[in-house]
Input
Amino acid sequence: MKRGAITSDQADERVALVAERQATLARTPPPMVFVVLDEGCIRRPMGEPAVMDAQLARLVRFAELPNTVLQVTPFDMGERRPFNLPVYNLTLPDRSLMSYAESAQRGHLERESMFVLPMLTAYHQLQAEALSQAASVAMIEQLRKGTP
Output
């Protein structure tokens, strides 16, 4: 890791956490997962080209699952984009809602509906303005082919 802000142990811990999250997609019954990514997430190169291509291919496979929806918010959405950091809105089996937001320094879990509902509303507005899943996958596939 070059000039990394975390140790190798911290990196391993984060990779293990992501792998654990990925495994939940295969449980029975699988959760419904709706994802809206900023266009920068798919355009900003991470690692070698083969690594980036594998990540983009993984997103396409994710979008093909029957319990997922993947959308990309284009750069031209500009200031209408309601979030600048990752936000997770969760509907639990008892239909209660939670929201989790994180920054580079910490995460915050919110269970109070007066705080969760505005986050959920902002997320639904983001979904409405994002590209459709078909257009999002087409954008990802174009990137994989090396075309802008």
Q: What stands out?
A: Residues 1-74+132-148 form one domain. The chain has a mean pLDDT of 88. The first strand starts at residue 33 and ends at 38.
